[in-house]
Amino acid sequence: AQTIHQWPVAEIKAVGSPLSLGCTIKGKSSPNLYWYWQATGGTLQQLFYSITVGQVESVVQLNLSASRPKDDQFILSTEKLLLSHSGFYLCAWSRGQGPEVFFGKGTRLTVV
Amino acid sequence: QQKVQQSPESLTVSEGAMASLNCTFSDGTSNNFRWYRQHSAKGLEVLVSIFSDGEKEEGRFTAHLNRANLHVSLHIREPQPSDSAVYLCAVTGYQNFYFGKGTSLTVIP
Question: Of B49, B94, B99, which has the smallest distance from its Cβ to A43's Cβ?
Fold first, then answer.
């Protein structure tokens, strides 16, 4: 069975500090991978997607970057956090362009 | 870009009464429509996926899609207090998901 694991579960970071959020998918080779973000009270927005290792497409610009260093790993990062980066980050995967997308449990980020 | 709007923003129902949630979208050519439930510590749980006009039932959850009216609804039969959560409508195209802001459902015992 496929599993998706996100880390950390929650993080409190200072403005201007770096950030790295991780996501690992086990049990599925060559998944499509996605990062989503939801500001408190806001709409869930897709940030990035990746269909293969080393290839990442940006959907929404938020001064964040994403990388896919391995087939089963997706990293979201920035060198300098902004207050506006606070929110809930979700990683997800799908089988190619298959109809179902499976979400991780998310990371709650608070920037202070 | 696809615009997705959900109503109502919040809904309170008594246990056992039908709960109905609505979602409208701006582009009817999108491929798929899904309803998710969001629990704070559990990420997103897919409830129903629907691709064709009409009705799709998954357990106590039934989705109705009408592309011509740009509308998809979710009906929860015999809701329980454990169904209290935020419900998200998602409209999907190629590699992109568009979500509504959600409906916060509270089920009172």
Answer: B99
| Residue spans of alpha helices (H) in B9-109 | none
Please tell me the predicted confidence (pLDDT) of residue A105.
Answer: 87
**Residues found in chain B:** 109
Residues of A with CB under 8 A from a CB of B: 32, 34, 36, 42-46, 49, 51, 57, 59, 90, 92, 97, 99-106
Asked if pLDDT for residue A18 goes beyond 70, the answer is yes
Q: What does residue B32 show for φ and ψ, rounded to 5 degrees? A: -130, 155
Q: Which chain A residue has the Cα nearest residue B33?
A: A99
Q: Which two tokens stand for residue A49?
A: 């997607």
How far is the alpha carbon of A32 from chain B, nearest alpha carbon, in Å?
9
Closest chain A CA to residue B44: A103
**pLDDT-based confidence at A99, cuts 50/70/90?**
low
Residue A43, pLDDT score: 82
